[in-house]
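Table 4 source record.
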Amino acid sequence: MDHRQSLAPCLISKGTVSHPRDVLRALETLENLEYRYLVDGELIEEGRATLVKLMADPESATLIVNGCLFLNVSSFRFLDFEQVTDDRWRFLLHGDSSHLELLSVPDTEEDEESAKRPHLLTEEAVGDFDALIALDDEEDED
């Protein structure tokens, strides 16, 4: 009795994934990073950022603003990842003629201190985030 079934891929330290769930899981390992954004092979922007939000939403944009990365995996076709040193990882997100390269930055003592500071309120942290915003808006009118 031979019940052969297709097995899911097993990727260790290096690989390519295209399913949004796999891309999300790989990128969940990031926090502080260096980035390079290229379009048609031309460098458009580079810098450092902190991954603030990770999503798979066909209607939202990927944004890097004020040192914060709001990364939508639906902005890209697939992801290549690899370990480049003992404590650094490279992630390359492929879009249509664009690439977003992310290089992990190891945590430092300064990062540990900033982790003790208050964090942004996110939708996941509050049950009814829209109602909270509406309440806040009402208070501003007084």
